[in-house]
Each structure stands twice: as structure tokens, then as C-alpha cells.
Amino acid sequence: MTEKTYIDAIHDALWEEMEQRDAMIVLGEDIQEGGVFRATDGLLARFGPARVLDTPLAESSIVGVAIGMATNGCLPVAEIQFADFAYPAFNQLISEAAKWRYRSDGGYGCPIVVRMPYGAGIRGALYHSQSIEALLAHVPGLKVVAPSSPADAKALLKAAIADPDPVVYFEHKKAYRMLKEDLDGDAPVRIGAAALRRTGDDITVISYGLMAHECLEAARELAADRAVDATVLDLRTLAPLDRGAILDAARRTGKVLIVHEDNLTGGIGAEVAALIAEHAFDALDAPIRRLASPDVPAMPFNAGMEEYCLPSREKIAQAMRELAAY
What we know:
The protein is an alpha/beta fold. Helices cover 38% and strands 20% of the residues. It is built from 13 helices and 14 strands. It has helices spanning 6-20, 43-47, 59-70, 90-96, 100-103, 133-137, 150-162, 175-178, 209-224, 243-253, 268-279, 303-309, 313-324; strands at residues 2-5, 24-28, 52-54, 75-79, 113-118, 143-145, 167-172, 180-183, 195-198, 203-207, 230-234, 237-239, 256-263, 289-293. Helix 9 (209-224) links the parallel strand 10 and strand 11 (230-234).
């Protein structure tokens, strides 16, 4: 086994897929030098400038060029340097890539992957800390994934590259070097499949990305203290949601806490809560609870304010205690 960080796993997935797929091209800002987070380190020397393309600082053109490549036999993986910068590309993503299969009556796919580093916790402040996944998970035609571990980061990126339709791949910046894991081979992960990380009888906690890791750690701590025995479900894919896994997890305990870093209003948690309320209401023993960031326009730079805004292991554990005692 080899210990890999979250960013190592992403790098290795890109490298291995480029070795296997001659049609695969990576593109983005400064990626020939490895990119801001070093995800593409060494790719230029190995695969050359025809397959590792530096782009202008123009996100609409990055995604637009990727769509053009995909419609001409290439397999482009585009990097948006920070998810906050993606808004100029929304027209290409939503009006073009997401509609490609529908508008062709199923005749054509648009096999692009758009990698987006997202999330706070690194004092990136305005324009470098946003969580925008709910905006894109709302769009039919786009698949949206958000891995919570190095193993899933590698497996889901490989699955995204193999997918014949557009996939937005959210990778949490704080997770890059924080999360480490021994990786032994490549266990495949299907897009659209949630992961049951822990089973317990008191409450169910549902999350994704870095927050899924924090929820699992909080659950382990509370179990060690014999305080709360929690089921933890990691969504992994935000579009399409694994409806069966969500409903099964909710029915297991009858008490549900949904945790995400994105703003509370209109976040993924709202959709998950609505799904449970509509299809598993008779199994509930308490109101569904959500823990998320407050509805503020941007993440503060001040360390204390950033900490105040973000869900944390301590806040999650407290919410779990309160729900279990309901």
C-alpha cells in the first residue's frame, strides 16, 4: 500500500488516464507549470504541450474550447482554478454542455470533465472560498461529484473521465494535503452511488466532500464516548443523488442531520430533506435538521469570522447530540 494525499490521488488519476487515453487533453490556467495546487505537476514533461494546454484567464473559453474538443473526438479535462471563477463559464456549461445529448435526441454526448477546487478553511476569502455545487447540481444534463477521501477522489475522477456526458468534479481545497490514505489498487466507484461510511442506531448524518470526513470523525468521537451511535452517509455524487441510499439511511434511525459547507438556503441539504420528507416521512421521529454555513455573500478573510461561518467537527458533534436527545 502507498499513502497518498487527496491531491496526489487527483494527480495520479490524471496521469494514469492520460497514459491510457491518447485522446485525453488537460487544459486550464497555468497547468503547464503544475497549476496553483500542483495537480498537473509533471504532465507537461510527460505528455507535451499538445495535450497539456495553458489557457488565457477566460473561463468561458476554457469550457467552450473543451466542448469543441469533445465534439471532435477528444476527451478534455478542464481545470477552473477556483470554483469562484466559474460563473463566466455557466453559459457554456448550462446552455451548451448540459443540453448536448438532449438537443441531439440522444445522438451525441459531450464527454468533458470540469474540475473545480471549492470550499473554505484556507483563508482564501472573497473569490477563493465559495461552494457553488448546488447551483450546478440543479441543472439536468450535468453530473456533479464531490469526493471526500483520496480513494474516492481518484476513483470518481477516473469515472468522470470515462463518462460520455459532462461531469463537474468538485475537489475541496482544504482536503488536498489534509486527507491521506493508503491506496491499494483502484477500486472503481460508480457515479451516482453514495457510500455508507458508518452504521449506528441513534441518528443518521448525511454529507459529502470534506464535511463527510468531518461528520465521520465526529461520529467516531461520540461513539467512543458512548454518547451517540450515528449512521454516516457520504453522498459522493450530488447529481444524480442516490435516492435509495438516502431513504434507507433515513429510515434506519428516523432522525436525520444533513451537513454541508455551502450556504443553508437552497443548498444540497434542502433537496435531500425534501426527498426524505416526501418519501420517508412516516419513518421520522424528529424534524430533519440541517447544519450549513450562514447565508452570507462571501466567506470572510478574518480567521475568527471564517471559523464562525464554517461547520466544524465540534459544531457537528453538538448538532448530533441535540438531535439524538430530541
